[in-house]
Design a protein that fits this description.
The chain is an alpha/beta fold. The chain has a single domain (about 1-190), classed as 3-Layer(aba) Sandwich (Rossmann fold), CATH 3.40.50.1240. Helices cover about 35% and strands about 20% of the residues. The chain is built from eight helices and six strands. The chain has a six-stranded mixed sheet with strand order 3-2-4-1-5-6. It is globular, with a radius of gyration of 16 Å.
């Protein structure tokens, strides 16, 4: 079994405004930079081979954490298409009942001109297979959508119901990968908050 440790990037202004943030390259906010500065990668994970999403918020998070990363396009956030940058209330106003119907599709929700979570899960699954083949403990600084995809791969979660486990975003999410690319949850919510901060 190979381990994959995932960290979500720190907050951006769009996160703070509850805007859908997919592949738009929104940087960390000043609050986000301060938050990540309080994180420390536990020693158990320092020697992993680290990757980061191409987006600057993931790259900057990795940099603040002192991680040397390779860029991995497969772990970019979900493409929200024409919904990018909008809030839930803005979308409810624009789409009415149609927005609520589409939300209820869970993993098969598809924004206009965007990806579904199922599409994201499929590309993450391909990356996981490549990690399994290399058989090297691996870490990645990525996005909420990528971590949700990994939980779905591990549990079969359809994203219609709440996640089977509560996720702490100031933490590492650790998964075990079988040689065939099968995903299991190893340990969730391994704190990144440094002692004494």
């Amino acid at each position: 079994m190979t381990h994959i440790a995932l960290i979500r990037h720190g907050p951006t202004t769009w996160n703070e405004q509850k805007r859908l943030q997919g592949q738009a390259d929104i940087p960390l906010s000043s609050n986000g930079i301060k938050r990540v500065a309080k994180w420390k990668v536990p020693n158990d994970f320092i020697d992993f081979k680290w990757f980061a999403s191409p987006l600057s918020r993931a790259q900057k998070t990795a940099s603040i954490l002192g991680l040397s990363v390779e860029t991995e396009p497969a772990i970019i956030e979900m493409d929200w298409g024409k919904w990018e940058g909008k809030t839930g209330s803005e979308l409810r106003e624009e789409y009415g009942e149609e927005f609520i119907r589409r939300q209820k599709k869970g993993i098969d929700l598809r924004p206009d001109d965007g990806e579904s979570p199922r599409d994201v899960r499929a590309r993450v699954a391909e990356w996981v297979v490549s990690v399994a083949k290399n058989d090297v403990p691996t870490g990645a600084v990525a996005h909420q959508g990528i971590i949700r995809a990994m939980v779905s791969l591990a549990t079969g979660w359809n994203m219609i119901n709440p996640a089977p486990e509560k996720i702490d975003w100031d933490a590492i999410q650790l998964f075990k990968i079988a040689p065939d690319g099968g995903v299991q949850i190893d340990q969730l919510n391994i704190s990144l908050i440094s002692d004494g901060l």
